[in-house]
Amino acid sequence: MSKEEKERKKKAFMDKLAKEVKRARADYQPKITQEELAKRIGVSKQHISNLETGKYYPAVEVMLEIAFETGKDLVILFR
């Protein structure tokens, strides 16, 4: 696999992950803000924003915390 193809696949994965993180937060009832989710899991609002826009590669621990807080299965976030 070429370097360009790897980068393209990585970007596609991050775009999909970003949408799932945003969806998990939006589906949570009552809906929670980026700031509230950030406080609950111990990161900054900017961190959540960067995850939701695909600008940041999340640590597994952060994804676990998001899954726990939103009631989503971690596998769903990575599907």
Order of helices and strands: HHHHH
Helix percent band: over 70%
Structural class: mainly alpha
Helices, by number, come to 5
Give the overall shape: elongated
Oligomer: single chain
Mean pLDDT, as a whole number?
88
> Mind describing the biggest β-sheet?
none
Write the layout of secondary structure elements.
Blueprint: H1 3-27, H2 34-41, H3 45-52, H4 60-70, H5 74-77
Helix pairs in contact: 2-3
Question: What this model shows, in words?
Answer:
Helix content is 71%, strand content 0%. The chain is built from five helices and no strands. It has helices at residues 3-27, 34-41, 45-52, 60-70, 74-77. The two termini are 22 Å apart.
Summarize the structure.
With 79 residues, the protein is an all-alpha fold. The chain has helices at 3-27, 34-41, 45-52, 60-70, 74-77. Helix 2 (34-41) packs across helix 3 (45-52).
